[in-house]
Amino acid sequence: MAPRKGKKNQGGAGDDGGHAGEKRKTPYRAEPNDNYAANMKKVFSERMFILKVTDSGEYDDLARTFSIKGSSGSTYTVKISNNLKGSCSCESAMFRPPTCKHMLYVLTFALKAEEPLRWQHGFLNTELEALFANLETYPLTSAQVSSDPSLTDGTPKSVNMDCPVCYKTCGDNTDVTVCCTSCGHYAHKICFDVRGEASSG
């Protein structure tokens, strides 16, 4: 199933995908690397869980760090930043770089990146700003809750929204869903259980 589209996140203007006044730190890639297709097949077929998202940028850096539980049950750290290539703590990223299924999962579902941006080895600030604007972070922060009373009224939201754990839609009718009695968001039951186990552990 294709991810819900956010803002348009193509490579940008020009043959190199650059924007006026900003230079890409790594060469623009018009074509994906050799393992991209195989990894994307896993992205769409395997179940992964994003347990935590952290704003890890320092000073003028743009960065988000994701704690993601893969299909094997192991938890990895994925970082998307403007200061380095996307990184992941899994063995595949270390020994078969530059990308792995965990990085591509984050880019595809959590950040709503489209091709060719999805297979780039580095990002412009303007690209990251648009990607991070698409990101819905959970668990909800106190600032989010205080600014939007509907997040604590317990009223069920649309079942067609993304699951707050796997970031795939809840409205595909293939998985059992549950509704949080506090914020009203739907989640896949298996995702809800995994998030609960991670929080209690």
What does this structure look like?
The structure is a single chain. By secondary structure, the protein is of the alpha+beta class. It folds into 2 domains: 36-133, no CATH class; 142-200, no CATH class. It is 26% helix and 14% strand. The protein is built from 6 helices and 6 strands. The chain has helices at residues 36-45, 91-95, 101-110, 125-133, 142-147, 189-200, and strands spanning 49-55, 63-69, 75-81, 87-88, 177-179, 186-188. The strands form 2 sheets. Strands 1-2-3-4 form a 4-stranded antiparallel β-sheet. The protein has a two-stranded antiparallel sheet with strand order 5-6. Strand 1 (49-55) and strand 2 form a beta hairpin. Helix 1 (36-45) packs across helix 3. The longest helix is centred in the C-terminal third of the chain and has 12 residues, at 189-200. The protein is globular, with a radius of gyration of 17 Å. The relative contact order is 0.16. Mean pLDDT is 81; it is low at 5-15. One of its GO terms (molecular function) is ubiquitin protein ligase activity. Residues 1-33 are annotated as: Disordered.
- Overall SS class: alpha+beta
In order across it, which strands form the biggest sheet?
1-2-3-4
Q: What best-fitting shape do the alpha-carbon axes yield?
A: globular
H and E string: HEEEEHHHHEEH
The low-confidence parts are: 5-15
Arithmetic mean pLDDT: 81
Number of domains: 2
Give the terminus-to-terminus CA distance. Answer: 32 Å
Oligomer: single chain
Number of helices: 6
The Cα radius of gyration reads 17 Å
Q: What is the tally of beta strands?
A: 6
Q: Major sheet, described briefly? A: 4 strands, antiparallel
Strand percentage lies at 5-15%
Helix content: 25-40%
